[in-house]
């Protein structure tokens, strides 16, 4: 078979380290049958998935280590992705989005995540913000904000969490006092992905009484006087996206930037998160998929006690369990995506279950894959440690897995 | 420019797959194995679509010869920007015997039927590495050929083709209608965009049979056996140069 000169294969020489990188890049195209993520998809979905896998393998995977180590926010690569339609995947086409379904979106993020979890996760947050404006904004807001977000001419951040309100999101303290045709915002948001580098901030703030009903959602643009940022946080993973506090000091935001009605903000935030949870879970799926393939290949290559590790029954069984849990997680996530796009009454709970299950299981899978690599798994030359570090936070953000359990138990115990 | 371009796309085993030979040695395992468009065919489609974007040609037709699954490959071509597709339905024994000669007869017949001015093909397929279809098609049509193209300049009714040859780069001028085969450095194929994938669903794929085109698919070739390359033997280290010469003489090498 003719050796294809594509850049992927150029580094086919020498050391084991180079081989590991090349394996990542080739294996993400996925040939192993039972964990094949294209099983059960329509022809069209397979085409979307193929583009996403190819983009991940060619444009993201070769750089994921550098983006992590140098903490680079890969604006150019994300803009390339936006040109393919990945900037507003489930945003309506009349404002520049691709108009695809939640299931299509999940498939795409899962594939992109095999190239770089951190970057894909940021793109999913960006997509969520673009959708919130598309779904809840009036015509003028949609036409103003969505097109540059879909093309990633501008980047977005989602601002809900505060230093004093994480899981207890409805207790947020950032106030928005009406003064003429502006809201004056005071307060601060914590752990904001993209904060400081992004252009559009979708901010949940208090316009009314205590609790969820007093919260509204406004769009704040970078450069607005009174908007400033904290220091860039140093994180264990998700290093290709900056995380900063977002600070409002008498920041005047036009009332016309409010999405929906006053008091509707919490609802908008939660609706955004339903999709966000599927997206984050999808990113975990991609990482686990890549990790299973990496572990599988390592087991075939590494020899101890005179045999390849793949001859050890314990490791065979462990790999089988990893693969089974991956497929189970994938089914949960895709089922939740379907329920959400069909607007079923169990959609919110299913999204919570999917996020809970997939993020926990996939972290365990990646962690186990690292263990299978032995000492090599701990080296930054090998991608497996980055997958583990990057997806660890998926069990915490977009609603901790504990909050997911709250949502599910509430649903079970309701009268 | 009202020219039509015909681009051949072949469905082959994906380049990243580890190939296994069938136990009965009649070929390689293809069932359940991931297939995709031949990479050189991707380059050919990309070139045709770029010509259309420059408004130098009017229509890009993607053709594939094979069983039902070949339509997936045509869909990928449509998603990259081809206007419509033609699926030449060949299956079973005929498909097993399908080689460059049969395909070039089909392409020649289609070129006449669709009134095509330019045929762009990949220089070779990564499964059989024949590197013959482009050349044979040109011969059957009695058209000039620009093979191993690394650059194509479209002029009024001729093409300037820069070819990669053993000695370096050769530039030739050929009159149209012509056949061009794409080499690796001709261009970098684009990713299909999500909107284009959705638009591709609405584009037409016509199915025709080789008999409709008056093409005889019989083959003069018979595959006797397909085997894996022999395992690499271990080398032998020798102590002195004299030993080396002796060993080379004994094994008849010198």
UniProtKB/TrEMBL annotation, chain A:
Pathway: Amino-acid degradation; L-valine degradation. It is an enzyme of class 1 (oxidoreductase). PROSITE patterns: ACYL_COA_DH_1. Residues 42-152 form the Acyl-CoA dehydrogenase/oxidase N-terminal domain. The gene is ACAD8. Isobutyryl-CoA dehydrogenase which catalyzes the conversion of 2-methylpropanoyl-CoA to (2E)-2-methylpropenoyl-CoA in the valine catabolic pathway. To a lesser extent, also able to catalyze the oxidation of (2S)-2-methylbutanoyl-CoA. Residues 263-413 form the Acyl-CoA dehydrogenase/oxidase C-terminal domain. This is Isobutyryl-CoA dehydrogenase, mitochondrial. It comes from the Eukaryota. It catalyses: propanoyl-CoA + oxidized [electron-transfer flavoprotein] + H(+) = acryloyl-CoA + reduced [electron-transfer flavoprotein]; (2S)-2-methylbutanoyl-CoA + oxidized [electron-transfer flavoprotein] + H(+) = (2E)-2-methylbut-2-enoyl-CoA + reduced [electron-transfer flavoprotein]; 2-methylpropanoyl-CoA + oxidized [electron-transfer flavoprotein] + H(+) = 2-methylpropenoyl-CoA + reduced [electron-transfer flavoprotein]. GO terms for molecular function: flavin adenine dinucleotide binding; short-chain 2-methyl fatty acyl-CoA dehydrogenase activity. Belongs to the acyl-CoA dehydrogenase family. Keywords: Branched-chain amino acid catabolism, FAD, Flavoprotein, Oxidoreductase, Transit peptide. GO terms for biological process: branched-chain amino acid catabolic process; lipid metabolic process. Its cofactor is FAD. Residues 158-251 form the Acyl-CoA oxidase/dehydrogenase middle domain. Pfam families: Acyl-CoA_dh_1 (PF00441), Acyl-CoA_dh_M (PF02770), Acyl-CoA_dh_N (PF02771).
Automatic annotation (TrEMBL), chain B:
One of its GO terms (molecular function) is electron transfer activity. GO terms for biological process: amino acid catabolic process; fatty acid beta-oxidation using acyl-CoA dehydrogenase. Residues 25-217 form the Electron transfer flavoprotein alpha/beta-subunit N-terminal domain. InterPro entries: ET-Flavoprotein_bsu_CS, ETF_a/b_N, ETF_b, ETF_beta_N, Rossmann-like_a/b/a_fold. GO terms for cellular component: electron transfer flavoprotein complex; mitochondrial matrix. Belongs to the ETF beta-subunit/FixA family. PANTHER family: ELECTRON TRANSFER FLAVOPROTEIN BETA-SUBUNIT, ELECTRON TRANSFER FLAVOPROTEIN SUBUNIT BETA. This is Electron transfer flavoprotein subunit beta.
């Amino acid at each position: 078979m003719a050796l294809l000169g594509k850049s992927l294969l150029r580094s086919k020489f020498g050391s084991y380290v180079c081989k590991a990188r090349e394996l990542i890049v080739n294996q993400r195209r996925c040939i192993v049958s039972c964990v094949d993520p294209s099983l059960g998809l329509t022809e069209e979905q397979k085409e979307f998935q193929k583009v996403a896998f190819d983009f991940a393998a060619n444009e993201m995977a070769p750089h994921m280590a550098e983006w992590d180590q140098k903490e680079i926010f890969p604006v150019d690569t994300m803009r390339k992705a936006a040109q393919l339609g990945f900037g507003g995947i489930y945003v309506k086409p009349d404002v520049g989005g691709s108009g695809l379904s939640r299931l299509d979106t999940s498939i795409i993020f899962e594939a992109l995540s095999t190239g770089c979890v951190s970057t894909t996760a940021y793109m999913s947050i960006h997509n969520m913000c673009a959708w919130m404006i598309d779904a809840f904004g009036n015509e003028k807001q949609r036409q103003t904000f969505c097109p540059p977000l879909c093309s990633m001419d501008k980047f977005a951040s989602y601002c809900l969490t505060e230093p004093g309100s994480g899981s207890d999101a409805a207790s947020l303290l950032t106030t928005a006092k009406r003064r003429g045709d502006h809201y004056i915002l005071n307060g601060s948001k914590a752990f904001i992905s993209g904060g400081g580098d992004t252009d559009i901030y979708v901010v949940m703030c208090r316009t009314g009484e205590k609790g969820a009903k007093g919260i509204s959602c406004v769009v704040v643009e970078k450069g607005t006087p009174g908007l400033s940022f904290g220091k860039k946080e140093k994180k264990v993973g998700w290093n290709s996206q900056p995380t900063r506090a977002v600070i409002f000091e008498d920041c005047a935001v036009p009332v016309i930037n409010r999405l929906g009605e006053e008091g509707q903000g919490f609802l908008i935030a939660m609706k955004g998160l339903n999709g966000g949870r599927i997206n984050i879970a999808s990113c975990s799926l991609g990482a686990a998929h890549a990790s299973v393939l990496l572990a599988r290949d390592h087991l075939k290559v590494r020899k101890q006690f005179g045999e390849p590790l793949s001859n050890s029954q314990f490791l065979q069984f462990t790999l089988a369990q990893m693969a089974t849990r991956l497929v189970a997680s994938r089914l949960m996530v895709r089922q939740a995506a379907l329920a959400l796009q069909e607007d079923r009454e169990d959609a919110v709970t299913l999204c919570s279950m999917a996020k809970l299950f997939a993020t926990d299981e996939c972290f365990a899978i990646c962690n186990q894959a690292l263990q299978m690599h032995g000492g090599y798994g701990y080296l930054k030359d090998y991608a497996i440690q980055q997958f583990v570090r990057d997806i660890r936070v998926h069990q915490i953000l977009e609603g901790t897995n504990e909050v997911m359990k709250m949502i599910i138990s509430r649903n079970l115990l309701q009268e | 420019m009202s020219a039509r371009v015909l681009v051949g796309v072949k469905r082959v085993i994906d380049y990243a797959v580890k190939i296994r030979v069938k136990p009965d040695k009649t070929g390689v395992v293809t069932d359940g194995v991931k297939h995709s468009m031949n990479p050189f065919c991707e380059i050919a489609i990309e070139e045709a679509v770029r010509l259309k974007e420059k408004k130098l040609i009017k229509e890009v037709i993607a053709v594939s010869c094979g069983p039902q699954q070949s339509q997936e490959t045509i869909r990928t071509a449509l998603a990259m920007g081809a206007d419509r597709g033609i699926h030449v339905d060949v299956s079973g024994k005929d498909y097993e015997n399908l080689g460059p000669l049969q395909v070039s007869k089909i392409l020649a017949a289609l070129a006449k039927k669709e009134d095509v001015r330019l045929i762009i093909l990949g220089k070779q397929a990564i499964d059989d590495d024949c590197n013959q279809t482009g050349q044979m098609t040109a011969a059957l049509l009695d058209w000039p050929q620009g093979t191993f193209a690394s650059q194509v300049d479209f002029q009024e009714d001729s093409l300037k083709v820069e070819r990669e040859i053993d000695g370096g780069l050769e530039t030739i001028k050929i009159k149209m209608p012509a056949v061009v085969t794409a080499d690796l450095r001709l261009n970098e194929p684009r990713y299909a965009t999500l909107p284009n994938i959705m638009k591709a669903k609405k584009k037409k794929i016509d199915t025709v049979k080789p008999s409709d085109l008056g093409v005889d698919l019989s083959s003069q070739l018979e595959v006797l056996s397909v085997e894996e390359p022999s395992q690499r033997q271990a080398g032998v280290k020798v102590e002195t140069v004299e030993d080396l010469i002796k060993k080379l003489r004994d094994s008849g090498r010198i």
